[in-house]
Amino acid sequence: MNSRMLRAAALLILAVAVLAACAPNAPSEVSATPPISPPQNESRKIPFDADQLYPPDQQTVITEPVDSSDIVTVLASNDAESGLELMFYAAQDGVIYGAYREKQGADWLRFLTEDTTAYEDSGSYGFHPFDNVLGHSGFVVLAPRGAAYFANDYYYFDEDGTLKFLVGAAETVIENDFDGDGTKEIAEFYHGGRDTSYFFERDGELLCFYLTDALRDAFPEWEYVFANPYDTDGAEINVSYKLSDEDDEHSARVTLSKDELTVHFG
Question: What is the pTM of this model?
């Protein structure tokens, strides 16, 4: 091989080396995760899962006559428009009791014993009527029970006049006909809506469904899931959430039936 051919070969080798050095390295795999985007203008159905569905706690109501001399302070009472009178009172033993009588002048019957004496302010206790909720009408007991639990206990009288406990809910409660069956159900917004439950009746059985837990299970990319009782319109429950890869807050609407919830986006 002459000198001219050797120089040409050397130049070719050098050119190949320079091109190889300048070429970008191709990645062996794609490491970037595409951002998560909320769905738009669509709906997703989530059947009620047995793990989030349970019968609400039941209580047997036991009544006892009230000795008027045992009443130290009346903490709260209702307006008794229907004739039924209700009161919370502090007794001689320092315990707070709930009592009722069917009309003025009748005997008072104690039906409820509170576990705490730490919240004796009369503004913390109360009663209000309810109508056509879970198939019954009656009254709601409002009572503080510890620093983080405010009770909304539902009671009604059965056909023979016996006082019955219906369900107990906590914090903010909304009564509405969420499933369209002509009877109101209960949405319970506990811990500011972070733990939201739905009380309803199906085939004669009272049930409670963990709504926000079901949303977290169905959408694992959701974080900070809340149901907002103050932004709930009619039979729709509004929820807010953040996606795991961003700080922006998103919203969706939830409707309910007796077997599933539907999440509406956009």
Answer: 0.80
Contact 197, 190 (CB under 8 A): yes
Residue 265, both tokens: 């986006």
Surface-to-core class of residue 108, CB atoms within 10 Å of its CB (0-12 exposed, 13-18 middle, 19+ buried): buried
The residue ranges of DSSP E strands in 67-147, in sequence order, are 71-77, 85-91, 96-101, 109-113, 126-133, 136-144
**Residue 50's pLDDT band (cuts 50, 70, 90):** confident
- Cα-trace Rg, the chain: 32
Q: Measuring CA to CA, which residue among 237, 239, 233, 234 is closest to residue 252?
A: 239
Spatial neighbors of 186 by CB under 8 A, at least 6 apart, are: 133, 134, 154, 167, 169, 173, 174, 175, 198, 199, 200
The pair of structure tokens assigned to 69 is: 């001399």
Check if the beta carbon of residue 237 is closer than 8 Å to that of residue 226. Answer: no
Q: CB–CB of 95/117 below 8 Å?
A: yes
